[in-house]
Structure formats: structure tokens, C-alpha cells
Amino acid sequence: MDITTSLCTNYWGAVISSTAVFKQSLANLSGKKENKMHDSFISYAIEDNDFVSDLAFGLKRNGLSVWFAPLSLKVGDRLLDSIEKGLNESRTGILILSPSYLSKNWTSYEMDILIRQNIEGNKKILPIWLNVTKKDIENKHIGLSGIVGITDTAEVSRVVSQLVEALSDGAPYRGVIPSWENPEYRFLSGVSEVNLQSIDGKTTTIFELLVHSNDEQFPFWLAGKSYSKEELLLRVAEVIGADPARVKKWVGDDGYQQLWDMCIEYGYDPKMFC
User: Fold this and answer.
1) Rounded to an integer, what distance in angstroms lies between the CA atom of residue 226 and that of residue 9?
2) Domain membership flag for residue 174
3) Chain centre to alpha carbon of residue 152
4) How many angstroms separate the CA atoms of 137 and 146, rounded?
5) pTM for this structure?
6) Do 124 and 151 sit in the same domain of this protein?
7) Active site annotation includes 110
8) pLDDT average, residue stretch 107-125
9) pLDDT averaged over the chain?
10) Residue 236 φ/ψ region, left for φ over 0, alpha for ψ in the -120 to 50 degree band, beta for the rest
11) Which of 110, 184, 193, 208 is catalytic?
């Protein structure tokens, strides 16, 4: 057995023979048969947040769904459970391999899970070499250095383009759902309803919500974000200015006048949006 073979054998053996808790986590991940909700899980070190944020939003603008901690984690989430769920529900893993990433234990945990999923389930790993060399990666994980990665990271847009091509399987054309088909956008534009409190709850438009709610019932939570009454009235002022008939369709002339008065009270004159 030559030195390279010995190193590879020792490396993969170390990954597979982790601690009992770690092995149980991996077993749970491997055993689940959930649908893949995300195109990719982004594993990174917090020191690289500026680069990774631009990368994540670039992928989202191209219609891809990514698990990215600042966008995916919510107050009250159990960190380990949320990360494991994100790893399991993503069909690929993007590793931002930087000096900070290679020096941390936590990122090593994510990396080892992704490598295990790559071995056992053929999950694709997409490494990005951010200010590191092949030697740096070999010193951390010799097996990982054999996976072709993106090494030119000078322009985030170019990195995004390469990832988009890889994540869409090289398809020459990709469909991206336009914003006006997004349920949240449609509600805020006054063209559709949402259910209150539960999927079976009473339906309401943005206009009806504002007409029939008092100040104590705000902020209004929708799709992971809280909206103040003021924020919603700005949206309504835009609709009143552009398409008053849309408002009257839902709340009639009296409701229309009530909304107009509220917009004026909050400093949003619908005439500005005519």
C-alpha cells in the first residue's frame, strides 16, 4: 500500500468511525426519506459572511432555493436540529472552503456530514476555494481535494453563474417563477387572499385586513416576516393610486374611503402613485 492509498484509507476510516453521537446524527440523516426542499445547503464560516451573502442572494435571484443560515434559521430554532434538517433536505452541498472554514470544528461537522452523504447517497458536493490552496485542503481532508471546485472567486457573479449551471444540471433553459406569481407578493399587491392563523382559517385580502383590524392586531406576520400597519398601508396606497377599482372590489366604497384616510394619516398620499 503506497502513502497516498494509506492516507486515503485512514481519512475515510476516520470519517466513518466518528463518535457515537456523530454516527447517530449521520444515521438519522441517511435514513430519512424526505423530499429535497432546497437545491443546496451552504456550509460556510461566519468570517466569510459578506461573500456568502452575495452568493446566496445571487442564487435566489436565479430561482434556486438554498439553505443559508441567516435566511433559514428563526428565533427559537434548535441549531443542531435545524442544520441537520437543512442538510437532509438539500440535494447538494456548497462548501465555502476558506482559511476560517478549514480551522473550525463546527464547519468540520457540516463538512463530514456532507462527505458521508456524498459517499452513501451520491449527494453532489460543490466546493468553492476562497483564498486557499490544494495543499490547505489536503491537510484538512485529503479526499475533498479530489473534488473539482471553483477556484476563481474574484467576482461573485461568475461564481454564481457556475453554480447555477451545476445546480440546473447544465440545462440550456431554466424557468424562474416571476415575483407576481409569488403568493406573498400577490397578497401585498391586493390580488389574492391568505388564510388567517391556519390553512383552514378565514381568508382575507390586505384591504380587508386593514379595514377590519385594530392597531393592537399588528404587526402582521406573513411568510416568515412581520409587517407593521404602516408598511401595509404603503402597499395599499400604491394600489389605490394605480388601480382603485381593485380596492373597491374587496371592501366597497366605504372601505375604500377608510383606507384612503388611513393612508393619508400615515403620510402616504395615494395620489403620489397615480
Assistant:
1) 51
2) no
3) 24
4) 10
5) 0.58
6) yes
7) yes
8) 91
9) 85
10) alpha
11) 110
Strands (E) across the chain are located at 40-43, 66-67, 92-97, 124-129, 194-195, 203-204, 220-222, 225-227
Amino acid at 11: Y
What does 33-98 look like in DSSP terms, one character per residue?
-----BSEEEE--GGGHHHHHHHHHHHHHTT--EE-HHHH--TT--HHHHHHHHHHTBSEEEEEE-
Please report, for the domain that includes residue 115, its CATH number. Answer: 3.40.50.10140
Peptide bond into 219 cis (omega under 30): yes
Within a domain: 173? no
* Through-space distance between the first and last CA atoms of the chain, rounded to whole angstroms: 78
pLDDT of residue 61: 85
Instruction: Look at the chain and report how many structural domains it folds into.
Output: 2
Query: What is the chain's length?
Result: 274
Over residues 181-232, the pLDDT tens digits come to: 778 889 999 999 999 987 778 999 999 999 999 999 999 988 767 899 999 9
